[in-house]
Amino acid sequence: MGQSGDGGGPQVRRQGRWRTGMQSRQRILDAARARFTELGYDRTTVRAVAADAGVEPAMVHYFFGSKQELLAATMRLPAGPKEAIGALVEAGLDDLGAGLVRHFLHLWDSSGFESFLTLIRSGPVRDDSTTVLRDFLAREVTGQLAGAIGGPDGELRASLITGQIFGLAAARYLLGLEPLASADHETVVAWLGPLIQQLVTGPAPAR
Which of 63, 133, 77 is CA-nearest to residue 49? Predict the structure, then answer.
């Protein structure tokens, strides 16, 4: 009996520490979300968020790193598409246009995308949101596409593709532009995929 009790003690304590840590993390997120909403990015400090959450500032940095990363966490950015785009690129560039459109439609229709739309919606009026969104796209999408496409205009092509893809997000999900908003995935892929493919492998326009 004593051995069973001794063996269970550390496990209970470990579970308790894990649960307490997750509770602290959630309190930090709630406090940060409230601060960012009320005061904006510049006037929100990690120290103030920590005080609101009842933790030390070091714990905020432990869980989230920088203040910008904390903002991204409050927006619940979707899982990065970097790996998925990498897999599409590895399969070859010939069908990349359709693959990209299909991937992002599935991603956007998954749970949690509403918070990402909030970030897109706030981007034009909040410098901090614009920075987070731009860095996210540069890291996860544009940079990877530019490397795969290559050539002297690879970066421009990648930027144009990113603009088309996230223009689709704004028109379909943010503005609810019909009939695009209610079109099924494969219809959108059939129309937009070849346009994206032109940017991937098509000849550069005459100048």
Answer: 63
Contact (Cβ atoms closer than 8 angstroms) between residue 14 and residue 38: no
What b/e string do you get for 67-86 counting C-beta neighbours within 10 Å, with b at 16 or more? beebbbbbbbbbeebeebbe
Q: Is the pLDDT of residue 187 over 90?
A: yes
How many other C-beta atoms are found inside a 10 Å radius of the C-beta of residue 191? Answer: 12
pTM for the model? 0.67
pLDDT digits (tens, 9 = 90+) for 109-130: 875 565 566 556 555 545 556 6
Angle, CA of 18, 21 and 27, to the nearest 5°: 145
Token representation of residue 32: 């940060």
Q: How far apart are CA 6 and CA 31, in angstroms?
A: 38
- Residue 116 main-chain phi, psi, to 5 deg: -70, -35
H-helix or E-strand spanning residue 168 = helix 154-169
